[in-house]
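Hey team,

Filing this mostly as a record. A colleague (T.K.) asked me to run one chain through the structure pipeline before their review meeting, and I want the input and output archived in the tracker in case anyone asks later how it was produced. No errors, nothing strange. Just documentation.

Input sequence:
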Amino acid sequence: MNLRIVGGAVVVVVAAAAAAGYVVLGRGSAEAKKWVETEFQPSTLSPDKQLAEMQWFAASAKKLKARGVKEISVVSETLTTHTYESKVLAKAFEEITGIKVRHDVIQEGEVVDKLQASMQSDKSEYDGWISDSDLIGTHYRYGKILSLTEYMYGAGKEFTNPGLDLKDFIGTSFTTAPNQQMYQLPDQQFANMYWFRADLFARADLQEKFKAKYGYELGVPTNWSAYEDIADFFTNDVKTIDGKPIYGHMDYGKRDPSLGWRFTDAWLSMAGSADKGIPNGMPIDEWGIKVGSDNCTPVGASVERGGATNSPAAVYALTKYIDWMKKYAPKEAIDMTFGEAGPVPAKGQIAQQIFWYTAFTADMVKTGLPVVNADGTPKWRMAPGPTGPYWKQGAQNGYQDVGAWTFFKDHKPDQVAAAWLYAQFVISKTVSLKKSIVGLTFIRESDINAPYFSDNANKYGGLIEFYRSPARIAWTPTGTNVPDYPKMAALWWKNVADAVTGAKTPQGAMDTLATDMDDVLANLERSGMARCAPKLTPKSDANKMLSEYHAPWAKLANEKPQGETVNYQKLLEAWKNGRARPTVDYDKLQEKAKRKDAKAS
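Output structure:
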């Protein structure tokens, strides 16, 4: 430590923390020291820097306590990461700062409903919210959510951690609006990936049988054709493993709000319904919403208005979802919700799952599970999800969820400041590595590259390799084309459920959904918005809107080209080189299929 005399008082400055802007009076509180030593290890910071950071939080909270702030309330969805925050980090924050935290953990749908109600009433139920960055288009347009960019350099400057280090975050591009203002601060994020039993795929007898039947290697599927072949193979050819049924697919289909996430979380774009372009396809995104030449004004979702929500690719996606669930998944899957279906692969009877969230990783590596080896390493691996026949190189590869801190602009300033402190506390470098180990929902580059994860990468089935790859940018949350996420997301699950039950055909369900979305856009157009309000394009002949060059894509003559797979080790090499997968030329596959059809006829 360095000692300096300032105004007759001895100020102890921790040299290691000086570069981050921390000035620490004394050695730091006993509470901070206790937490740093007992809970906040390992960390990317040295213990001295951790103590300095905690001392800054204590000093900043002291100012707010002097103004009468005693307690704050925040809310987040039910995830392992948020449970850790509510049960452990909230307690740590209270002991170190003296400000009590009520951190509610509730279902995601309830978070969205409460947030929508608060926006409509202009009265925030909580001081701070962790809500998905999927709402970025909503926040930007309505103008009711605090711009953190303005706040950090304005009213909240004195309460902004000098060691926040925004450049270290991997998800701020998803929480930044078209005006280049950041409205949300990432707290956790995870991706949807392909999941498979690597131990079963490696069995020589199964490899031989698969190749004899399908003519190509049993491996990681790069297209939906191969995924379907593998699903059929395990369900109908292999049938049992260790005396128990084995299924080639897993999903969920209960009439429930979580059914909508299955689709808004990029299922249509995985099939290939959107335009090319990262993060979400432009001008048509993964929901099928088209924006105008300003890349901001929604002009329609239906094909009749130039959108793609009820396009051939979207109908194909819904059709395959239903067919696979009924043919290749356990019969009870159709009556499950997202939360009920999530733990099923860990029971050992699922060979692969096309749409699996990495947030489940922490619960899939526990000792004693049928999918975990005796040495603690997983029998499974994760990989990029295969893509459908309409998908083009350069399009979004999959969905990535970013749960992020969100604050209302007109809420009580001191309560916002205290909640902002807590938000920064739970994502601070002092605690973020430990939180990443607990929940495996990375937000910082420094945590991903920490020695701990280098030493333990083999325990996580490819998660570390994925997040260390530049290829992860092809996994993105819902983008800014969606002008009102709460209103529009509610439309999806009801229409999809109608197709699952057979009340409507896949085409009929998507036609209704597209019309419903257009109606919401029309209402938003009439109501007026602060920025980028929808302006619907007049309807036109749907057939004239379909194209071979851009979305909405024209219907393919053959929606099941030859299946293709890739060796997992080659896939890891592709990740290291910044590619989502070894190159797959879908146009070439289509040409091959056409030649095969022509020859057959």
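Quick notes for T.K.: Residues 273-310+479-545 form one domain. Residues 1-19, 23-28 have pLDDT under 50 and may be disordered.
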